[in-house]
Amino acid sequence: MSERYVAALDQGTTSTRCLLFDQQGRLVSLAQRQHHQHFPQPGWVEHDAAEIWHVVRRLIPEALDNAGAGPEQVVALGVTNQRETTVVWDRHTGQPVGPAIVWQDTRTAPLLQKLCDDLDETVIFERTGLPAAAYFSGPKLRWLLDSDPRLRERAERGDLLFGTMDTWLLWNLTGGVDGGLHVTDATNASRTMLMDLRTLAWDPQMLACLQVPASMLPQIRPSMGQLGRTRDPVPGIPITAVIGDQQASLFGQTAFEPGEAKCTFGTGSFLLLNTGTEIPRSRHGLITTVAHKVDGEPPVYALEGSVAVAGALVEWCRESLGLIRSPAEIETLAMTVEDNGGCFVVPAFSGLYAPRWESKAQGIVAGLTSYITKGHIARAVLEATALQICEVAQAMNRDAEVPLSSLAVDGGMTANNLLMQAVADFLDVPVVRPMMAETVALGAAYAAGLTAGYWPDRQVLKRQWHKAGEWHPAMDPGVRRFTLERWDRAVELSIAWGRPRDAGG
Predict the structure, then answer these.
(1) For the chain, which domains are there?
(2) Which of 42, 67, 244, 368 could be cross-linked to 187 through a Cys-Cys bond (beta carbons 3.0 to 4.6 Å apart)?
(3) What is the tens place of the pLDDT at every residue in 212-259?
């Protein structure tokens, strides 16, 4: 009997991957390609959705070929994706009407005050679990429809479809203009500012506030269930899971029980805490999101702290500054010095997300003196990610009944030992990395495989989790306290820099 696999399609901010896993959760095959990043104006970040679909069409056959497998050997496909990135396309031609607006994009910041004038921000937060912020998909969709009256006319006629990247890929995978499924799942829908967290349905009041025609919206489906079968680029693979990337990572870390948490270090950095079937309400700047929804079962929720810029800052150092030739070199350069020399980098390229939610904040470098070298800047770049997550963890500790006693981490940046030690030092808790650091794709595969019966239950997956690395706090408490105070001052400066002079900046 030929080997059977579960596939995961992981559509991320900078690249897309197709991976095959076997029954022991081992990676069997990986095909990956990057796509272009477009920055047409300050604060604008765009992707070409058609390019991403073209990449996907090549990756799935490539991953199968690498494993020597046919589509009939894939028992299930799980799709995971960058969450808030917004795509609008013509249902008749299948062509996007313009560039996809990426989750990091801040062009909608001027809209937010108008939205709060129309609907009180506390009502928005109560219904959606989200603050009024440029991060989410709903304001991006509103901006697109406002940018061209012809688009709004086409949308109101029912000619245009909206979706986050999962919806765009599912529509194309299942036939596109020839009967493709226009669906999303509850995790991705919970990032739009258009869904009621309690009912998991599109909220008429939010649609009216954001002036979004209901005919554009996909059907909200469970994260785990029978969604359909692929028709393109290979036919017949059952699609049994769709889940946003950070929720997929929580699932891949096997954080199935309330109180279990994880932090992913990728383009951005995201700390999620499973809160079970009760809807949590943060009082300290975190958001409420759907962790996952199994067909026929109540939804599971999570508290999330989102940091916009983590690995993206390292990439900026490489691409824009030429400070390093590869991301791995940032650690080598940072190790040439003992500390940051008093230099702090606040990477507010997309404003500040949790817990401050300051959309107008701008990036700064503070503490520059003639003493500062490239090594100090490199160290400050890595510490910026650790310090941002420390702020989020502190907010989560204030919201949660039990503070974090350790932190499970994953994502590409966890290969950076200096960064992981900094996270442990600033949080003052142990940091633990699993053998499979790329848990986003693993979580999508786990969700799909459980639905398809490939794995019998979650305890099997728990037993497949193995520790690969652990870091313990080693920082003097006085140094920690001083560093956190200086970081707080630097962040306040970045907020003041972005404010108009007449706003008290």
Answers:
(1) 311-408+476-503 (3.30.420.40)
(2) 244
(3) 999 999 999 999 999 999 999 999 999 999 999 999 999 999 999 888
